[in-house]
Structures are given as structure tokens and as C-alpha cells.
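I hope you will forgive my troubling you with a question about protein structure. Could you please explain, in whatever detail you think fit, how the C-alpha cells follow from the sequence? Thank you for your consideration; the sequence and its C-alpha cells are set out here.
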Amino acid sequence: LSTSERAFPAFPIAVQMIVDAAASTDNESYILLLTDGFSWDSEAYASIKWQIERLNRERNTAINVIILGLDVEDDEIIEECKIMSTVSKGSLYTDVTLETIDETFNTIVGLLGGNHLDNCCMQGLTMEKF
């Protein structure tokens, strides 16, 4: 499998799913993006950042982006991920490794409400080929 596969980029699809979901106008929305940096598309993601910021200004609820950089080696991509995580107060970027990914997911679950997550939070999941 190529880590540079871009046939079905998940990030724009996730944003569109949130825009299309009626529940996103009443509740905070979260996109969890796991990237190794190889499939990062700087131009497209800059446009998505602008779109999310515009939506966050126009809505009563925020679209938050949580980015996990899995062994990302390119400093420029790390910086772009950090910039992307400024779209809302609930957004963040963190570096992870295969050794720390379980702990990181547990931390994120805790940030999002622990065991109180119900099925409405799992309405749509999408994954980019990795």
C-alpha cells in the first residue's frame, strides 16, 4: 500500500459529511484526522481550513479538527497540521507513534466526554487509505 494514495481523500469528505448533517448545526462536531504526512495536500487542505473557519463563524456550533501526526517526519507538514488545528478552540494537533497511539486515543475519548459518547456521535465515519 502506498502512503501517498490520494484517490479518496477522507478529510474533505469528512467536512462535507458534517456540513450535510443536520445534527452538526445543534452540536459540536469533531473530525479526527490521522496522518503520516505522505498524503498531506497543502493546497487542498488550506482551502478546507478556510472553509471550516468560515463555517465556524457562520454557525452557533464549531467544527473541530483533531490531527494525530503518526511519525510525521516533514517539519513543514507538521507546521501545516498545527496551523490547521487553529480552526477552533476544540481543535488540536499532537505527534503520535505506534507505541503511544492507544494512550492518545484514550486521551481524546476523555476530552470528548469519556464513556458518555452515544450513537449520535458515531453517525459518520470515513477513513483514507493508509
User: Anything to note?
Assistant: The beta strands are 29-35, 63-70, 92-96. Confidence is low (pLDDT under 50) at residues 1-7, 115-130. The first strand starts at residue 29 and ends at 35.
